[in-house]
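Usage

Read records sequentially. Each one opens with the input sequence:
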Amino acid sequence: MTIQNPGETLPADAPENAIESKKASKPRRGRWIWLGILVLILGVAAGGGLGYSTGMQDRKSGELNQITTASTTQYELAMADISENRLAMAQQRLEYVLDIDPAYPGATDKLAEVMILQAQVLTPTPQPSPTVSPTPDLRGVEEIYNQAVELVKSKQWSQAYDTLQALRNSDANYKAVDVDGMYYIVLRYRGVEMILNEGNLEGGIYNLTLAEKFAPIDVDAKSYQTWARYYLNGASYWGIDWGQVVSIFSEIYPAFPNLRDGSGMTATERYRIAAKEYGNQLMLAEDYCKAKEMYQMSLNLSPDELVQSALNDATTRCDEANAPPVEPPPDWTATPSPTGEVLPTQEPPAEITPEPSVTPGS
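and closes with the structure output:
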């Protein structure tokens, strides 16, 4: 038995050295594993953050496009109102444009121009001959105030608004806080009434916007204002982009099926017509299955013989497009013709050997 000197070093392949080498390699390998996990977690987090940032940018871009479309449409309608001397409606449209897009080019200057034109119309031009002028409201401010209170109590919102205007013109400082409170109530309920009962969506939005200058409006009024704006946005694509009309009114009509604008068309009717027109557009693009869906959605709201016929045609074409290919019978093989065409060739029938006939007497 050999006794090892304390100063001697064990050989590299000694069992003791192998055990110590394994112990030293385990922590090093563990550090690499944890480092790999950390890199993986950081990569997933970075990817998620990038996806979220991209999604938010896309959403903001879509909202900006909707605002741009709505403001452009209302600005052009305001120009038409000015040319036809509908100055009050033009003022409402321009104020709406500035409300959703304060930096819209030219809207501020055009609004000032419209207000000047209205002031000129309302201001009587001096004539050399005597003219009959409207009788001014000579009642005392207290009487006008009391009448406004009664009109608010009886929910006659338009008359109450006119009376408050007369009161402010007579004495802008008379019970200013109370009058502001009545203005808020009248504008709030008058705006909702215009949206729900009169189909005057622009006027309703305008009144609710004025009410917000006195105090924040309640949740219901804000909801009506939002749906009215959404309706106008969808209607601005009418006849231009049927797919966009379908997309917008598919969200409006389940919530407010009878919401309508000055044309009298409800959200449901606009959705029905838009689905039919979009189906026609898809048929021309040979997207028969999508057209079939549009026609069916239109018919779900109201029967229509023409739409039913179009649905039948779209269904047939969709089924044909999705039908599996017809396979040749198993006893046919493809044989190239001299011209290069592949022609089906039937396998030759089995040869029949005639049986020997039996002769009498054989």
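Summary fields computed downstream for this record:
- The radius of gyration is 41 Å.
- Residues 140-235 form a domain with the Serine Threonine Protein Phosphatase 5, Tetratricopeptide repeat fold (CATH 1.25.40).
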